[in-house]
Design goal:
single chain, alpha/beta, Maf protein, 6 strands, globular
């Protein structure tokens, strides 16, 4: 496969999330990369119609690259709970409802775990998964995937992070993601691991 590098490029991050843009920008800036979000460029937000992370990441990256004429990076990620058959998975954000009520989402997961009789740590295993897609204007594409295995706890703990972080304890740790500093979390998170692979390959 053709080898391509991103050093010194202008890149569009396929997100309307300011925090996610800042996270990408911090990691890419040392490599001379200028990153902008699709939100800042007023680009359309495509409908995510795939039933897997890779498919949805490609939809977002392809749309951002096509409308901007630049290289685009998109990620699709979510929580996959073993006892729930991998749910919520690609529907992770949907479980929080239109208002993105993450307490509602965490409570829904817990209710379903209780209904499934999942009470021991072994029965409450879960993984955060992230797929990054890098799309070039000519259609060249690359994927990077990261996984953070762990278990779910209740009640929620910690005020840092976002989403389901307060109920997720990564393997080998005692704190939830929401109790960790950003640096500590990023070192072992699903997105951090996927980004590490991207940086190693493209710079």
């Amino acid at each position: 496969m053709e080898s391509r590098k991103l050093t010194g490029k202008r890149i569009v991050i396929a997100t309307h999330n300011k925090g996610k843009l800042e996270e990408f920008s911090e990691l890419l800036k040392p490599h001379g990369v200028v990153a902008q979000s699709v939100g800042a460029l007023s680009l359309p937000e495509p409908e995510e119609t795939e039933d897997n992370f890779r498919g949805n990441a490609k939809i977002k990256a392809e749309s951002a690259s096509r409308h901007s004429g630049q290289i685009a990076i998109a990620d699709d990620s979510g929580l996959c709970v073993d006892a729930l058959g991998g749910a919520p998975g690609v529907y992770t954000a949907d479980w929080a409802g239109p208002s993105r009520d993450w307490m509602q989402a965490m409570r829904l997961v817990e209710e379903k775990l209780q209904a499934a009789g999942a009470r021991t740590p072994e029965q409450r295993k879960a993984q955060f998964k992230c797929t990054l897609c890098v799309m070039w204007p000519d259609g060249h594409v690359k994927y990077y995937e990261g996984v953070a295995p762990g278990q779910l706890v209740w009640p929620p703990r910690g005020a840092l992070g976002h989403g389901y972080d307060p109920v997720f304890v990564p393997d080998g740790q005692e704190k939830t993601f929401a109790e960790m500093s950003h640096e500590a979390k990023n070192a072992i998170s699903h997105r951090g691991r996927a980004l590490e692979l991207l940086l190693r390959d493209l710079f």
